[in-house]
């Protein structure tokens, strides 16, 4: 007869869990669960303990696949960057950069936490593929590697800046009652600001607020068009579209 007893007060560790719960564990599964947590609850909710609990394994089990939380965050960012890769960049440099910019913006808006990680100098296979694809597209405009890098950085800066502004606006509107959302409504709700607006000191602002505000996507598309027009005029001044 087996007389071995289990203390019910002792937490179950990785060694107590069924082997089946760890059999299919992989780095990819760990990263996928971490991404789910970040998307649902934000980056602060991601921890090795939380990911392990979601996977049904002990926390220490994760360390056989991922070095630590910092490594996990870098893997998350690289996995996310796979969304920025295009199967077809199109027939020319302008189409390619436009498609890359739109795809990257959409990804950043789907995963707001990624902007904080994007400031890290981390590199992974998908990040390298994204850089290579972007440079290859820019090479259709100029053969100068330094110029290609500058072009790619300019487009990336525009995408990140627009995404940050749009996400910030979303956060503000989430915390402010709907009737007060938007610059005009917020000014109208503050008597002092409303009086200033109509004092004559801010004629350009008053005229702007009197019109319809463009959607964030429209502002992005216009800014991207202006940027690409300027790039084309720089490297192809004789182009009919420049």
UniProtKB/TrEMBL annotation:
Segments traversing the membrane: none
InterPro entries noted in UniProt: Homeodomain-like_sf (IPR009057), HTH-type_TetR-like_transc_reg (IPR050109), HTH_TetR (IPR001647), Repressor_TetR_C (IPR004111), Tet_transcr_reg_TetR-rel_C_sf (IPR036271)
Gene3D superfamilies: Homeodomain-like, Tetracycline Repressor, domain 2
GO annotation (BP), single: negative regulation of DNA-templated transcription
Annotated HTH tetR-type domain residues: 24-84
Alphabetical list of Pfam families matching this protein: TetR_C_1 (PF02909), TetR_N (PF00440)
Entry superkingdom: Bacteria
Molecular function as annotated in GO: DNA-binding transcription factor activity; transcription cis-regulatory region binding
Keywords from the UniProt entry: DNA-binding, Transcription, Transcription regulation
Keyword Signal: no
SUPFAM superfamilies assigned to the protein according to its UniProt record, in alphabetical order: Homeodomain-like, Tetracyclin repressor-like, C-terminal domain
DNA-binding region(s), chain positions: 47-66
Region named Disordered: 1-21
Protein name: TetR family transcriptional regulator
Species: Parafrankia soli
């Amino acid at each position: 007869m087996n007389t071995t007893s289990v203390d019910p007060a002792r937490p179950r560790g990785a060694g107590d869990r069924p082997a089946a719960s760890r059999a299919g564990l992989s780095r990819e599964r760990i990263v996928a669960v971490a991404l789910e947590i970040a998307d649902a609850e934000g980056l602060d909710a991601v921890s090795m303990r939380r990911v392990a609990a979601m996977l049904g394994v002990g926390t220490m089990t994760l360390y056989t696949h991922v070095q630590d939380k910092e490594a996990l965050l870098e893997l998350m960012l690289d996995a996310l960057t796979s969304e920025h890769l295009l199967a077809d960049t199109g027939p020319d440099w302008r189409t390619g950069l436009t498609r890359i910019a739109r795809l990257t913006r959409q990804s950043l808006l789907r995963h707001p936490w990624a902007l904080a990680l994007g400031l890290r100098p981390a590199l992974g296979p998908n990040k390298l593929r994204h850089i290579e694809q972007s440079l290859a597209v820019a090479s259709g405009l100029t053969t100068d590697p330094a110029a290609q890098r500058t072009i790619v950085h300019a487009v990336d800066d525009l995408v990140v800046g627009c995404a940050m502004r749009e996400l910030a606006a979303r956060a503000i509107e989430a915390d402010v009652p709907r009737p007060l959302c938007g610059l005009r409504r917020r000014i109208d709700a503050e008597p002092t600001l409303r009086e200033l607006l109509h004092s004559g000191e801010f004629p350009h602002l008053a005229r702007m607020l009197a019109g319809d505000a463009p959607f964030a996507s429209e502002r992005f598309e216009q800014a991207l068009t202006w940027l690409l027009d300027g790039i084309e005029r720089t490297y192809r001044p004789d182009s009919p579209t420049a």
